[in-house]
Amino acid sequence: MLAAWGPCGFQPEPGLKVIVPAMPTTLDWSYSDPANWANYPVMLATQKGLTTLGADHSVRPGLAERWEQGRDAQGREHYTFHLRRDVRWSDGATPLSARDFVVGWRRAMLGRERGEMADLAGVREVLALLERGAPAGQVQEALARTGVEALDAHTLRVTLERPRNYFLSRLANVYLFFPAPSADLEGLTEEALRDYFDRPRDGRPRALGPYRVERWDRAGERVRLVHNPASAFQPPLEAGERPAPVITLMRSEIGTALYARGRVDFVFIDSALALRGPRPEDLRHEPLLSTYFLVFNTERPPLDRPEVRRALARALDREALLAGLLPEVRPTNVLLPPELPGAATPEEAARLPRFDRERAREELRGQPGLQRPLRLVYKSGDSFVPEVAIAERIAAQLAQVGVTVVLDARSDFSSEVARRTPEGPRAYDVYLRRLGADYAHPNTFFTLFEHEGNHQSGWETQAGGEPMARFERLLEEADAEPTLAQARARYAQAQEVLVGEQAVIAPLYHPDRYFRVRPVLRGLDVNPFNFLALDQLRLAPGQPPGER
User: Fold this and answer.
1) Where exactly are the transmembrane stretches of this chain (predicted)?
2) Computed over its alpha carbons, how large is the radius of gyration of the chain?
3) Rounded (5°) CA angle 184-188-194
């Protein structure tokens, strides 16, 4: 009976209720953890970065009102950020300072995602010391030498190990680079630091965004956010609108039913089948910076030959694969979404394998090894990507060029695509996967396919490793260019190696994210990175949800 009285979707509670796919695993944005995707809705609502992204994904000022960029005598890139002087933490009294970045970034260098900080000068030394269990004093000395320095209260100097033109884009999105409230954190023991973030109370943890966390109920799987009037980043209010005073993020297996009964105000559509019927008037969607593609096991015959992989990529009619499955589709034969800065031009896209069934049939004729069925592995369970239908249609289309495909839906998908046969190669033949951008830059799409990336394709073994080495060299040269405009041609060449010459993957479409939201809520959205966006949320004139 006591359990029945706990929080639930049907319990009256003030403010808006928003269904999210997962609860955060931590509120400590500097220390974080590898399952960080679940933390982003809260982090993006409560914190801010030095930069932000415009509607066209270009880099704009955020906590920094401006910056200068240069290189030192060793060729290292450095940025001098001038902080906004009107930004206060959520107590309304403590100003943002450059020290907040020094404290936050150094904590991130010690945290569970510390490898994400490796672009900063000196961080690799810190990582090496941590790896070998060096004394704490040595680690602290190395931290003091890293490339983050407060020149004064309002000026931050950041030095990178080597030039990286994606760095400003990462600052906007990757929350490890958000500042930490140094006035609260400095001098605390590790236990006190955990308590500060794990038990929100008395207005802590401090926030910079339009909301702060008031309560984190792990057992009830709820996070309550309250409006932060001290934030310099308020939503743009029109006549009669007002900020939402309270938002409860909650997880529920019956979110769609709760929405239908008026108990919650926002819900993701996490089943593609739910989009096949009549469309409700409050259905919305966001084009994601994301690509869904087919991966080839390049180590296993007959897919160890690039000419076979290219032919299979040409056998796929992307328009027909998606026809009728979703309200809107964006078929593609390229990895980089067209909205991404630096994406391929139409001429560059035309050079990559695209649908040509007769050519595919001719190229596959007589190829040895295609007599055996190819096993296509995909994730079992509901998804906003119509995986079952796409897999079935791939099998049907490849049958038209003489290739038999058997389907294997797996609940242990990640383990299965990594599993190796007794002979050595991985056990699958092809698998389906979605890749979403972490920040608005081509680099974020390519890192998966580098030697240390989790692509599980085996393409590092192709031609003695020369194609991958050339691919990584192109990326290194592109990343080191001063601007994305200067780097764009090399990123296009890298895509040509991966998708065209080697055909490691066959891109299929750029997904959209669908959701339902009450009309009285304005600005409640999903951003192109597939995260709930609350920073523009405001209530329309009239009776707000949650007070019915």
Assistant:
1) none
2) 25
3) 90
